[in-house]
Amino acid sequence: MTLNSYKPDIVFHSLFGPPHAIDNAKYINSTKVFYSGENTDLRFPEYANIDQHTDFYINYHTLKARQTTPKICQDIRIPLWFFCFDFYKRENSTTLEYIKNNKITNANKRQGTALIARSDFYNCRQSILDIFKRHKINVACPSTMGNNMPSIGPDIKDKIEFLENYAINICPENMMGEGYLTEKLFECVMSGCIPLYDGAFCQQEKYGLLMEHDIFNTDRIIMASPTMVDQTIRVLDNPDKMLGLPMFLPTAFNAILNMCDEFDAFTREIVKHVEARKQKHIL
Question: Which entry of 10, 106, 175, 249 is 20 to 30 Å from 32 by CA?
Answer without folding.
Answer: 175
